[in-house]
Amino acid sequence: MQNKRDVIASVFLIVIGIAVIVWAFRLQVGTLLRPLAGFFPLLVGSGIIVLSLVLLFRGWLGRGPAPRPYGRWQKPAVMLAALAVYAVLLEPLGYIPSTIFIGMVTLRILGVMSWKVVILSSVVLSVSVYYLFTQLLGVELPAGVLSFLG
Fold first, then answer.
1. pLDDT per residue over 10-48, tens digit each?
2. Which long-range contacts (CB under 8 A, 24 or more apart) does 45-49 make?
3. Are 86 and 98 in contact, with CB atoms under 8 Å apart?
4. What are the residues whose beta carbons fall under 8 Å from the beta carbon of 121, sequence distance 6 or more?
5. Residue 71: alpha-carbon gap to chain centroid
6. Rounded distance, CA 81 to CA 111, Å?
7. Burial level of 95, CB count in 10 A (0-12/13-18/19+)?
8. How far apart are CA 55 and CA 6, in angstroms?
């Protein structure tokens, strides 16, 4: 065994894949032409197992990439904090302002340096997704401070 981390991770993921498949059969799978609620989870669980087996064999045979030390932790920490703030602000501020905020944070973390691009992309994404879900799909999203818009 060359890469113990990959082997351990793959065994863990295989167990998760099996659990997903068991759960899928409890939901009833159906057929390819008439899929039921468990069909997609069955595909996902099977994919997890197949990819985990590839990882297991690569880790066991030592053919995978060498383990690398973890990178910087600051960006994931900022993203985690921003998601926590997003969760807190979503109800009182509403979907559009909160999603503009999380979009701006995400784009800055990803390295987009132009504030014009960051702001414009965040606003367009937030407003278009809000419209898609509320008007076209009929899903209610928190309106918050913009409730006067309808």
1. 999 999 999 999 999 999 998 888 888 899 999 999 999
2. 45/17, 45/18, 45/19, 45/20, 45/21, 46/17, 46/21, 47/17, 48/13, 48/14, 48/16, 48/17, 48/20, 49/13, 49/14, 49/17, 49/18, 49/21
3. yes
4. 103, 107, 112
5. 20
6. 18
7. buried
8. 6
| Cβ pair 96, 130 in contact under 8 A | yes
For residue 128, the one-letter residue type is: S
DSSP string for 25-83: HHH--B-SSSB-TTHHHHHHHHHHHHHHHHHHHHHHHT-SPPP-----SHHHHHHHHHH
Provide CB contacts within 8 A for 16, sequence distance 6+: 48
pLDDT tens by residue, 84-138: 999 999 999 999 999 999 999 999 999 999 999 999 999 999 999 999 998 888 8
Q: Name the token pair of 39.
A: 């069909």
